Amino acid sequence: MAILKSYLGVARAPFLLLPVVLVAAGAAAAAFGGQFSWSRTLLALVGLVAAHVGVNVLNEVSDMRTGIDLHTDRTPFSGGSGTLPGRAMSARTATVFGLGACAVALAIGIWLTARVGWLLVPVMAFGAVAILFYTDFFARSGVGEVFAGLGLGALPVWGAAFVQGGTPRAAAVAAAVPAFFMTFNLLLLNEFPDEEADRLGGRRNLVLLLGRKRAAVVYAVAALATPAALGVAVAVRALPAAALVAVVPSLLLVTPLRWALAAPEKAVPIPALAANVGWNLATNAVLAVALAFAA
Q1: What is the CATH number of the domain that holds 114?
Q2: What is the pTM of this model?
């Protein structure tokens, strides 16, 4: 059990619900357009979960190597799992585990590409670059949040729609846009508690580049852009009217937005971090259900 706990720790198991709801949203968007395959959806899910595990594990290894994990004030939502600093697993074992997860994702991607066409290759290539270079390059170049929003937000939704068997229609693109904003914000808010550790570790994220107040404004804008994007998509008929129900989880934003607009210089309240995660998962999940119902 201790060994299993260490593997689940570096994989950040509680966060692996994100790829589930992303694939669900993309597959449901494709179903709304008349295309759906259970087998390809399940394969896409396994591949994306494996890719997410790879990102999480390699990130933990890098943060241990640079010392970031030795200085973070951990919360249930930020600061790493503590598995490597606690010596529950060696960095070498974690690296092998992370690369193994990436290999599984690659194998599934190749299989799907052989069946749906080469348009999937750019998505896979972007994902591979984002996984292998996120921690040591993108997170140190001021674009980590954007790459997270694309690699674990918009592109998985679009990709899950694409593997159903045809070029994704407007619904897939419309579902991908809020996914980008939500994953962007998922990372951005979690960077506030790690501000000092990230500075010592050489990272250059939006909190460090813009300062807490301006980064909090960026968070607020991206948060409000999510329900706005859903409303616009329904207005232009890219999404069915039923998709408006996915705006309801945005009520969870009250707590993080209150902090962002009133007291960003203070520590992020744990309820705000929890609401940020819940908003992300619930919005994608509700959108998936609404699109499946409409289909």
Answers
A1: 1.10.600
A2: 0.92
